[in-house]
Amino acid sequence: MTGPFQSPRDRVLWILAHHGGKMKRSRLRAATKMREAYLNPILGELEREERIRISGDIITLERAI
Fold it and tell me: What is the rounded CA–CA span in Å between residue 61 and residue 65?
């Protein structure tokens, strides 16, 4: 469940988990309602933590939340 107290990182992971674990970057950006400049650092951080994998334009959830 998304809510006002959910962190942006958790929101990204929640959206990926509830959309089959894989989304195009543009669709994820629209679903999170975040600007690209704000979303990209979050995606980079999640990728370094091996929570997601970025392959071209596709973002894939790597392990269970």
Answer: 9
Q: What angle in degrees, to the nearest 10, is found between the helix axes of 36-48 and 8-17? A: 80
What is the DSSP track for the chain? ---TT--HHHHHHHHHHTTTTEEEHHHHHHHHT--HHHHHHHHHHHHHTTSEEEETTEEEE-S--
Output the domain CATH number for residue 47: 1.10.10.10
> pLDDT by residue (tens digit) across 3-46?
566 899 999 999 999 999 999 999 999 999 999 999 999 999 99
> What's the pTM value of the predicted model, to 2 decimals?
0.85
Total domains, the chain: 1
Residue 44 in any domain: the answer is yes
